């Protein structure tokens, strides 16, 4: 597998509008950033939804395995970035 996954979005919605729409549905939204993925292969793991999101974000976090762990990791990273 590659060390990262690239994702392009097309449409008229800004990230703020999209976040607002998800929040209006009662969902949690975590604003994060896309990281520069290390230039090495990502850890070999089953390709789950969590792994897909980590690849898009350039996040190599080998012990982040569940959606809840990913949510906590992104929240923690967000707090450290402030």
Amino-to-carboxy terminus distance: 32 Å
What percentage of amino acids are in beta strands? Answer: under 5%
Main beta-sheet strand count, sense and barrel state: none
Structural class: mainly alpha
Radius of gyration: 14 Å
Order of helices and strands: HHH
Structurally, the number of domains stands at 1
Helix segment tally? 3
Q: Any idea what the shape is?
A: globular
Which regions have little confidence, pLDDT < 50, spanning 5+ residues? none
Query: Total strand count, please?
Result: 0
Relative helix content: 40-55%
Characteristic terms for this protein:
82 residues; 3 helices; mainly alpha
SSE topology sketch:
Layout: H1 15-24, H2 49-57, H3 67-81
């Amino acid at each position: 597998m590659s060390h990262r996954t690239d994702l392009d979005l097309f449409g008229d919605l800004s990230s703020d509008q999209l976040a607002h729409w998800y929040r209006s549905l009662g969902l949690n939204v975590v604003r994060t950033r896309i990281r520069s993925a290390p230039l090495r292969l990502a850890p070999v793991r089953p390709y789950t939804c969590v792994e897909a999101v980590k690849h898009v974000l350039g996040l190599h976090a080998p012990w982040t395995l569940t959606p809840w762990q990913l949510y906590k990791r992104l929240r923690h990273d967000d707090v450290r970035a402030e």
